[in-house]
Design goal:
The complex is a heterodimer of chains A (114) and B (120). Chain A is an all-beta fold and 114 residues long. Helix content of chain A is 0%, strand content 61%. Classes of the chains: A mainly beta (114), B mainly beta (120). Chains A and B meet through strand 4, strand 5, strand 9 and strand 10 of A and strand 5 and strand 10 of B.
């Protein structure tokens, strides 16, 4: 099955700095890589995603990059703000029984200090 | 537009009791799943369903049952609660990702707000 490793487990930055979270995956058949943000007491929310035929995708202050050869993908947040503080999860979708099932990383707790 | 609705939000059970966690979605999503979230363990898949009448096991299925009689509902049953099942449970849904070309936004999950379960 798929195995997704996520680093770091905790990331502390000053407001305005950039934050980078990295994930690696094991199954070369995985072709969809979403990122989720989970605020305290809430369910995870999809913030950005990328498919395997794309190397980079941006949405305002967040961007994702994908290196299929190396089997790793990253989330980049620029000009961080206190409201970016949350737990972030990466996922890689692998095929299982005719459907693509995501496997999640263990999460990164991002703390943005004002 | 309610999205994914989970009930109850909080529950305390005694060891050996059974209960059902409810999950309903109103987006006509084919795919539904249950995850448990424990500190340091991320989100682990319990059971999932790719459509009404079809269910399958995930990574940690022991002690849980599911059924999918309608597209909208996907209840999770704890047969005989154990302290190890103390966790936060999330239900999620999406359009079914079969690998065929399609709008990328169709494959992202919509999560419910979770059920915090404590087994004493």
């Amino acid at each position: 099955g798929e195995n997704v490793e996520q680093h770091p487990s905790t990331l502390s930055v000053q407001e305005g700095d950039s934050a980078v979270i990295k994930c690696t995956y094991s199954d070369s058949a995985s072709n969809y890589f979403p990122w989720y943000k989970q605020e305290l007491g809430k369910g995870p929310q999809l913030i950005i995603d990328i498919r395997s035929n794309v190397g980079e995708k941006k949405d305002q202050r967040i961007a994702v990059t994908l290196n299929k050869t190396a089997k790793h993908f990253s989330l980049h947040i620029t000009e961080t703000q206190p409201e970016d503080s949350a737990v972030y999860f990466c996922a890689a979708s692998r095929k299982s029984g005719g459907s693509y099932i995501p496997t999640f990383g263990r999460g990164t707790s991002l703390i943005v200090h004002p | 537009n309610a999205g994914v609705t989970q009930t109850p939000k909080f529950q305390v059970l005694k060891t050996g009791q059974s209960m059902t966690l409810q999950c309903a979605q109103d987006m006509n999503h084919e795919y539904m799943s249950w995850y448990r979230q424990d500190p340091g363990m991320g989100l682990r898949l319990i059971h999932y369903s790719v459509g009404a009448g079809i269910t399958d096991q995930g990574e940690v299925p022991n002690g849980y049952n599911v059924s999918r009689s309608t597209t909208e509902d996907f209840p999770l049953r704890l047969l005989s609660a154990a302290p190890s099942q103390t966790s936060v449970y999330f239900c999620a849904s999406s359009y079914r990702h079969t690998g065929s070309p399609g709008p990328i936004y169709r494959y992202g999950y919509t999560f419910g707000s979770g059920t915090r379960l404590t087994v004493v």
